[in-house]
Amino acid sequence: MVLTQEEIDGCREAFLAFDKDRSGTIDVWELRQVLEAMGQKPTEEELFQMISEVDDNMSGSIDFGEFLKVIENQKERAENFDDENDMIDAFVACGGKADKEGHVKRETLVRIIKQDFGLTIDIEELINKIDQDGSGEIEFEEFKVLLSS
């Protein structure tokens, strides 16, 4: 995930504003303040995880380059979260449950793809490939594979 120049400039401003002692690094508590100023509300566990993912020299604090990695990771997680939510919404619309339980019936999926959307793909063949347990019903993980095909 690449940040735009505008995002990098905003990150630099935030980093410098919270590097109170002008050490060129921020610790976990300063990171919390920066992220909160940027509209995020990380837990203590998430903060330590963020730092451990990028703190190459294991100092317990991060420099600006490492901070940019934190922001890139956060941006990627947010995009993945949106993708996952979209998958859940589609699963629910087809008959599954929001907690990723339940299933989508083969017939329902075939009808939606062929009749509702008018697609000419061989949905039956795709279902046969992804229906790992041969149940004729598509569980959430199988549904994700189908949408990614």
UniProtKB/TrEMBL annotation:
It comes from the Eukaryota. Residues 6-41, 42-77, 118-149 form the EF-hand domain. GO terms for molecular function: calcium ion binding. The lineage of its organism: Eukaryota, Sar, Stramenopiles, Ochrophyta, Bolidophyceae. The keyword Transcription does not apply. CDD domains: EFh. InterPro entries: CALM/Myosin/TropC-like, EF-hand-dom_pair, EF_Hand_1_Ca_BS, EF_hand_dom. It comes from Triparma retinervis. Keywords: Calcium, Repeat. Gene3D superfamilies: EF-hand (1.10.238.10). SUPFAM superfamilies: EF-hand (SSF47473). Coiled coil: none annotated. This is Calmodulin. One of its GO terms (cellular component) is myosin II complex.
